[in-house]
Design a protein that fits this description.
537 residues; alpha+beta; eight-stranded mixed beta sheet; 8 strands; 12% strand
Length: 537
């Protein structure tokens, strides 16, 4: 069972793994603008950083002829900046158009994406990175030709600087696009939860290693080979190269690794927070599914688990309402088997008086309302006294005390319950019923077949309670028990009863001495004498 003693935790303030992505209930128009800004601004900044890396590597770090000469003044001050501005402008516009294309369908919150729309959205990170790569490749070709015409010795330096920066920018762009599109990806995965997209956790980790570690080390090794092959490369220049590339490993490698770790930890933290909510009894917890990698399968698995728990809780609740909470818990805790065990128990049988006439003279909806009010009283008092409402039989009911949950004073609890029910029925004025209470040895267990059975109580005490209920309709008290049952009850309850005449009940061979509640105590609250027993139960 799920315990609900503690208040449920509040839902996460960052459902997509970051507050930057906004809440789940954000308006579609605002979300579209937010996602577009998260795509455009970080990509623009990443490309600016890439251009700065090219300037630093080609102008100050890598060995070879210097770029700052009079012959290269026009290229450095006009041609290269113009290429950078054109590339940034084209890249921004191209990326914006691609982003709008991927999110066009997402402007309608009720729209379920088609297969084609899901493919476009899922492949958006890949295609947007290809755009970045195409622009950087074009810049590599154009600038290499331009500088190569001016001085062929500059070709290795230009290619190495632009190529290294391009790889770094493209890798960072993939992580940026994947992050910004999480809210849109979530809707794709809801429509198609089995879709896998992206490069996975392993791919992300290897990407950060390649760009943050392998590439700078490879450039450093290239510079070392270059220095060995070219005696003109001084030790100072080589030292500058090694220190600069080592610093880039520490800085950019750390930034890339932080991005990868954040992308990996965010879904795990979401599952962790949702687990806490479930532990505190909140079965409404559900995680937005926004990661298409193995972590997305973890999110989806959690949601399926909670859905199963909700179904189980609903079944347990319905099961408990049908057969009683104690019987339901006993069936869930152990494997139910056919058959029963002999035990001490008390039975309370109650039946409405005049139900046949009522059914013939009143409309069916009114009868149903009367029965519901009647059983509300019966069920409430039976449960307050630690009993189990075992059966509804039309306008009658059978309650048992002492099985399946034991009671310290089962006979006293049943007698007290009978008095409480009769008191409340008298207060209702329009409800009149006979009640019989008896205690003794019974057989309690599951009766039926292997694929359909119910918990029931069989024995002389049950039969005696039914006969006493039938006979009680002839007495003003409308409540009868037996001297044997009264003797089994504690003094706190037996003092509210008097012994009456001796009769032979229908279908029984031995005479039974009746026990009737004292009329002076009928209007008192009979639950007080058994409060301690109920609390102990």
């Amino acid at each position: 069972m799920i315990h609900r003693d503690e208040p449920p935790c509040a839902p996460s303030a960052a459902p997509w793994g970051s507050p930057l992505l906004g809440p789940v209930d954000e308006k579609p128009a605002i979300r579209r603008v937010r996602v577009q800004l998260l795509l455009t601004v970080p990509l623009f900044i990443a490309n600016l950083i890439g251009i700065a890396m090219v300037v630093a590597l080609a102008g100050f770090v890598l060995p070879g002829p210097t770029l700052f000469t009079r012959d290269l003044l026009l290229i450095n001050t006009v041609f290269t900046p113009l290429c950078a501005v054109i590339a940034l402008t084209v890249g921004t516009v191209w990326g914006t158009v691609a982003g709008l294309r991927a999110m066009r369908w997402a402007s309608d919150p009720e729209h379920i994406p088609t297969a084609a729309e899901r493919r476009v959205t899922a492949s958006a990170p890949f295609w947007m990175v290809l755009q970045q790569a195409a622009l950087w490749t074009l810049a590599l070709i154009v600038l290499t030709v331009a500088y190569g015409v001016a001085d062929p010795a500059l070709i290795p330096k230009i290619m190495l600087a632009i190529g290294g920066a391009a790889i770094g920018v493209c890798a960072d762009s993939y992580l940026i696009v994947e992050f910004a599109l999480r809210p849109v990806t979530a809707r794709v995965l809801v429509a198609d939860p089995h879709r896998r997209r992206g490069i996975g956790v392993f791919g992300r980790t290897m990407l950060s290693w390649v760009v943050g570690v392998a590439m700078p080390v490879a450039v450093t090794m290239t510079v070392a080979v270059w220095a060995l092959a070219d005696p003109a490369v001084s030790k100072a220049r080589l030292a500058v190269c090694v220190l600069s590339l080592g610093g880039s490993i520490l800085l950019f490698g750390g930034l890339l690794m932080a991005q990868v770790v954040a992308a990996t930890v965010a879904p795990i933290m979401g599952v962790r927070q949702a687990l806490r909510r479930v532990e505190n009894g909140d079965l409404t917890a559900e995680i937005p599914l926004y990661d298409g990698t193995e972590l997305g399968e973890l999110q989806s698995g959690f949601n399926r688990m909670v859905h199963g728990l909700r179904e189980r809780a609903m079944i347990e609740d319905l099961f408990g309402k049908h057969v009683g909470h104690d019987v339901a818990m006993a069936a869930i805790a152990s494997q139910p088997v056919l058959g029963g065990t002999e035990t001490e128990a008390a039975a309370l049988f109650i039946d409405i008086i005049g139900s046949t006439t009522m059914a013939a003279t009143r409309p069916a909806p009114e009868i149903v309302g009367i029965l519901n009010r009647f059983f509300d009283i019966v069920v409430d008092e039976v449960e307050r006294h630690g009993g189990l409402l075992n059966k509804f039989e039309g306008d009658a009911a059978l309650a048992v005390f002492g099985t399946p949950a034991p009671l310290n004073d089962l006979a006293g609890s049943a007698l007290s319950c009978g008095r409480a029910i009769q008191r409340r029925l008298r207060e209702a004025s329009d409800l009149n019923a006979g009640i019989g209470v008896a205690a003794g040895r019974v057989v309690a267990g599951n009766v039926g077949t292997h694929n359909r059975y119910e918990f029931t109580v069989i024995g002389d005490a049950v039969n005696e309670a039914a006969r006493l209920c039938e006979l009680s309709k002839n007495y003003d008290e409308r409540l009868l028990s037996s001297a044997t049952t009264l003797a089994a009850a504690a003094d706190t309850e037996s003092t509210h009863w008097d012994l009456g005449e001796t009769v032979t009940l229908r279908g029984r061979l031995k005479p039974t001495q009746l026990a009737l509640p004292r009329m002076s105590t009928q209007n008192l609250d009979p639950t007080a004498s058994h409060l301690e027993q109920t609390e102990a139960h």
